[in-house]
Amino acid sequence: MKYRTGLDFAQQLDAKDTLGEFRSQFYLPSDKDGKPLVYFCGNSLGLQPKSTKSYIQIELDDWAKLGVEGHTHGTNPWLHYHEFLTETMANIVGAKHHEVVVMNSLTVNLHLMMVSFYRPTKERYKILIEGDVFPSDKYAVESQLRHHGFDANEGLLFWSAPKGKELLNYDDLEEILHEHGREIALVMIGGVNYYTGQYFDLKRISDMAHKAGALVGFDCAHGAGNVDLNLHDSEADFAIWCSYKYLNSGPGSLSGCFVHERHANNPYLNRFAGWWSHNKTTRFNMRQPFEQLYGAEGWQLSNPPILSMAAIRASLDVFKAAGMNNLIDKSKKLTSYLEYLLSELNDERIKVITPKNPLERGCQLSIQLISTDKSLHQKLTNAGVISDWREPDVIRVAPVPLYNSFEDVHRMVDTLKNILHD
Predict the structure, then answer these.
(1) 42 SS3 class
(2) Is residue 41 part of a domain?
(3) Domain count of the chain?
(4) Which domain holds residue 259?
(5) What is the bridge-based pairing of β-strands 156-159 and 184-190?
(6) How confident is the model at residue 174 (pLDDT cuts 50, 70, 90)?
């Protein structure tokens, strides 16, 4: 598509946008005068669907009217509420239904997965992660190494970008696996890097790691609801993701978990257990021996928090109506348009470090600041553009296809232009 810089062009794109109607289904933050802000922070916390309150209210009403009977006689019986989320969530991440479950929070699920899939030996115990991985993941894998009696500094390997570059390349990963493959027990990579926005080839990484004899997991917190993860075909052993970024389920909401079907009933995998991972038909017969559920559900521990799941369900129903393929298509158009407008600024103080190839990124573009500082981000915020800052020098902007418009993109870049020329 041949882009133009004028506001009228952005408005023309919006007029043709078949997903434009979904914007009205979300609450848009506004300034003190009631003017909508440009919200480009869905990669950190997604906006609230207007339907969320009614979804939660149904469960509050059933709790008030039915008490404990809500588990079996509620409008949406709580006993198997998590199953209401499975089909749509599995479609979003490209998995089979029995490979997906929603439970716990993100880092809790990472630890539960490592209980099963980090199986160190004296010779093969190292964990390979991104050089600039999200800190929480680094803390988690370090603690797992220490838990198993290894030195975290010695047991951690890093896949880092070449000197002077921002993006990771697969030749370096292959070299690490060739050199250290016999020592590596687990490769644990973020599906989309939080800082650069680089979307990795999950299948390629899985194939390389498995060939070296390691198991593979992905933290897809910045990928779920954003890119085509295709987890089943990636052959990953496991994956986790949060639901409060692109999946709009509210601050601190529950996490999704993927376990490839080849592990669905593996008796040799160590795992923690609780009564919600026990056979559903005998779960409440308190004196039956433990019988593991098949698939990802077999990693559950406790009964689900219904109010949080109701918020997730509200957003997933919006996703189902919009269609993940449609959202990805619009996302590529939004980011391409944003990239074009930023390039038209011709300002050496800003540089987009996210991959130019649309297949290697999602909604997020990371703008690196050169010869300037965080004050530019603060000026953007003060001018009504909500993005986020990541140390040492990046502004992350994420035009989300469910509720952002092409006019939002134009307004953001026009605001940035005025700040740079001030």
Answers:
(1) coil
(2) yes
(3) 2
(4) 82-303
(5) unpaired
(6) very high
CATH of the domain at 361: 3.90.1150.10
Q: Mean pLDDT, to the nearest integer, of 14-35?
A: 96
**One-letter amino acid for residue 336 of the chain:** S
| Residue entry with tokens 């404990």 | 68
Tell me the pLDDT tens digit for each residue of 227-259.
999 999 999 999 999 999 999 999 999 999 999
Q: Is the overall model pTM greater than 0.85, yes or no?
A: yes
